[in-house]
Structure formats: structure tokens, C-alpha cells
Amino acid sequence: MSTWGRSYPYVGPADLKDAVRPGSEGRRIRSMADFVSWVAEQSTAELADPFTFVIDMEGVLRLAPRRSEHVACAGGGPVLGAGEIGFVHEAGRWTVGDVSNHSTGYCPDVGSWPAVAQALDQVGLLRPPGFTHEVVFRRCPDCQERNIVREDDFSCVFCGSTLPAVWNVSPVDGSGRS
Fold first, then answer.
1. In angstroms, rounded to a whole number, what is the distance separating the alpha carbons of residues 72 and 12?
2. How wide is the angle at C-alpha 78 spanned by C-alphas 157 and 150, nearest 5°?
3. Mean pLDDT, rounded, for 168-174
4. d(CA 121, CA 114)
5. N or C: which end of the chain has fewer CB within 10 A?
6. pLDDT tens across 25-70, in order?
7. What are the beta bridge partners of residue 88?
């Protein structure tokens, strides 16, 4: 565990991690000046959709286009948080409109919110008090598949086994891959 909270290794398909190349990381956003510079490069159409984000191991927000893989945004490394984020321009300033922990490559727990909030606060972006859409991830103890829990149904969609009540989506073999 880092001083920022739990870290999340990549647990998605190996081929996506293997495709990560140096320089493909998401843009590091440390301040409002960084954010304003980044947002000026985005088209109106891009700003209408959420973006891929990660919170890197230094607690810094990284942003990439929505269809980017979280593992590429993170440069292949572990993260403190990951998901999708949308921004709105209101009353002359940028704010976070929507933010989720939806990342099937990292499957971060809803408890990753404090790291996300801290990174957004560091930038100076107004934000909601928590994820606007929480995704509950679990690994099936029987078939080892990653699941998204829907409507509080803690049953594996692949084999029907009962999923654990607490987050357990760590790498199966310890390598950062499942």
C-alpha cells in the first residue's frame, strides 16, 4: 500500500499491456494551468465525451482520449485510481461533471475515491463528493474471471459462483496479469 492508498496493478489482457510503448502515457495534469493547456487542445466533440483517466503512483491525474486503454494511459504501471471522467465549463471555470472507477484493466475498488479526489483537488478542479457512477469489481474465486457486480447480485456471470463481499481483483499469478 502506498502513502496515497491502495495501488492497483494491471489485471486485464496481456496483449494490451504488451502493446504499451514509451511516450503513450496520458497527459500529466498537476495544476489548473496544465489542465487549461490540455483542454485547449481538445475539440468540442472530444469534450462532449468522458476521457480515460488514471491516478499514477505519484498521485497525479493523467488524461487520455476516451477510447484509450487505461494501461496505456498509465504507461503500463500500477495506479492509485482509474476510470472515466467528464468535464463541464460552468460560470467561467472547469469542473468535473461525471467521474467513475470504470476500468476493466485495473478494476479499482470504489475505495479508490480518496486518491482521485486528492488528485483533482491538487489540480484545482471542482468535483463531486464521490464517484458519480460506482463500479463494483470482483474476481470469481472459482473460475478466476473478473466480474462487474450489477444490482447487488454477487454471482459470477461466467460460472454462477458467489462472489466475495470485499474487493479481491488482484493478479492471479502475481505478475500483474490475470
1. 12
2. 20
3. 73
4. 10
5. N
6. 999 999 999 999 999 999 999 999 999 999 999 999 999 998 899 9
7. 95
Q: Are strands 61-64 and 27-29 parallel, antiparallel or unpaired?
A: antiparallel
Q: What is the pLDDT of residue 178?
A: 40
Which three cell numbers mark 45? 466533440
Q: How many domains does the structure of the chain reveal?
A: 1
Tell me the C-alpha distance between 6 and 110, whole Å. Answer: 11
**Contact by Cβ (8 Å): 129, 155:** no
Query: What range defines the domain where residue 100 resides?
Result: 1-178
pTM, entire model = 0.92
Number of other CB atoms surrounding residue 4 within 10 Å:
18
Contacts of residue 155, defined as CB under 8 A and 6 or more positions apart, other chains included, come to 161, 162, 163
Say what the pLDDT of residue 100 is: 98
Among 61, 8, 3, residue whose Cα is nearest residue 35: 61
